[in-house]
């Protein structure tokens, strides 16, 4: 390894040693050599320590948080503990392509000076086409779900000094949308270089945090909007950007609520959980900034329940 790593994978883990081991083994297959892996363990019993010891790789730096700091604070500890110029935020269960760092370092060499180098889905670009987005336009481009239908923090590298200036990942009481806020704010401080290609993905399993704790969806929606509104105001970001923030939230609400409803209707049938999801959605749509999605949600809900009834009739 060179004296200072160019990038650091910043992780948080909590009592999931099997997932952690699998993720670390995958991260160690990166085709770019100059990087480190920072593991912050939220488990007071340090269940991740033996995994790191078993792998015995100098790239991996393991830290015990001592107490359970919560997901966001633990991630922020990993950012603080990193020594690299850039960081990649990654969970202990979402796979990252082996070529991520190599591709991002190439974009960095070709276009130095940006805050964010990423692989996101960009609807109006050809596959693997690269574009440079200015700081002024970053929020409007990246948070618009029509222009950017998919983004994930484990598919990009972000300047560590920019994240530290932002005080890390915003902690508004929920992990939901905190990654999107982080990407949007970092890019609006230095612009970004984006390739139309995904380098990571979300893993779906029954223990996903997102399948329960519905109150966090409410807090996440409110916190994200408040965080972005404050940031845009303090940094003289255009009013148009806040319109895109609302649009982003509308898309997020529809996608997440109906994914949950399908899960608790088809994959793990539970009518009580479906009702909890509906109450969660209703509470979110009470926010003034979310009222623009109400009609769309009701139409989608009508279609959903019609399809559900047709499935039941077909089985009868």
Would you give an account of this structure?
Helix 8 (215-234) runs antiparallel to helix 9 (239-267), helix 8 runs parallel beside helix 10 and helix 9 runs antiparallel to helix 10 (271-284). The chain is an alpha/beta fold. It has helices spanning 17-27, 49-55, 71-81, 100-110, 138-142, 160-165, 178-190, 215-234, 239-267, 271-284, 294-315; strands at 7-13, 35-41, 60-64, 86-89, 116-120, 130-133, 156-159, 192-196. Strand 1 (7-13), helix 1 (17-27) and strand 2 (35-41) form a beta-alpha-beta unit. The model has no long low-confidence stretch (mean pLDDT 94). It starts with 6 loop residues before the first strand and ends with a helix. The chain folds into two domains: 7-196, Spore Coat Polysaccharide Biosynthesis Protein SpsA, Chain A (Alpha-Beta Complex); 209-315. Strands 3-2-1-4-7-5-8-6 form an eight-stranded mixed beta sheet, with helices on both faces. The longest helix has 29 residues, at 239-267.
Sketch the major β-sheet.
Answer: 8 strands, mixed
CATH superfamily of the largest domain: Spore Coat Polysaccharide Biosynthesis Protein SpsA, Chain A
Using the coordinates shown, work out and report the CATH topology of the largest domain.
Answer: Spore Coat Polysaccharide Biosynthesis Protein SpsA, Chain A
Helix coverage percent: 40-55%
What's the CATH architecture name of the largest domain?
A: Alpha-Beta Complex
CATH class of the largest domain: Alpha Beta
How large is the share of residues in beta strands?
5-15%
Shape estimate:
globular
